[in-house]
Amino acid sequence: MIFIVIRIDVRPEKREDFLAGITRYSAQVREEPGNLVFRCFASVEQPDEYAVLANYVDQAAGEAHVGSEHAQWFFGWLPSVVASVPKIVYQELPGDPWMEMGEVKLES
């Protein structure tokens, strides 16, 4: 599985444009074969900081995503709304790394 986290710092005056664009893009990415998760989260401390979490079944699915028409649009559009170049963490992980957090127990 491919595990990706992207930190995006948005220019304050472009927040609404960013939210409209990332909403459109997210819907398109979620329709891709091989996409497991694609979500955008806002920071609770920094109003213009966002994180994107993306998971793909394998490298081929990730490469297909990067080559897609909507990804090419997003990569070209993103510089118009960000305050700096986004930062990315990209890891290829074996199996399904999503597991229950052992430190948290649900109340009965």
Brief descriptors of the model:
Dimeric_a/b-barrel, AI-2_Isomerase_LsrG, monooxygenase activity, four-stranded antiparallel β-sheet, 108 residues, alpha+beta, monooxygenase, globular, 3 helices, 28% strand, oxidoreductase, Alpha-Beta Plaits
Describe this structure in words.
The protein is of the alpha+beta class. It has three helices and four strands. The protein has a single domain, classed as 2-Layer Sandwich (Alpha-Beta Plaits). Helices cover 31% and strands 28% of the residues. The chain has a four-stranded antiparallel β-sheet, with helices on one face. Strand 2 and strand 3 (49-56) form a beta hairpin. The longest helix has 16 residues, at 15-30. It is globular. The relative contact order is 0.28. The mean pLDDT is 95.
Summarize the structure.
The protein has 3 helices and 4 strands, in the order βαββααβ. It has 108 residues and is α+β, with helices and mostly antiparallel strands. The chain has a single domain, classed as Alpha-Beta Plaits (2-Layer Sandwich), CATH 3.30.70.
Percentage of residues in DSSP E strands? 25-35%
Count of domain modules: 1
The geometry reads as: globular
Just name the CATH architecture: 2-Layer Sandwich
Q: What does the main sheet amount to?
A: 4 strands, antiparallel
* Helical segment count: 3
Alpha-beta classification: alpha+beta
* First-to-last CA distance: 33 Å
Mean pLDDT: 95
Strand order of the largest sheet: 2-3-1-4
Which class in CATH terms?
Alpha Beta
Q: If you consult CATH, what is the topology?
A: Alpha-Beta Plaits
Number of strands: 4
Oligomer: single chain
Radius of gyration: 15 Å
How do the helices and strands follow one another from N- to C-terminus?
EHEEHHE
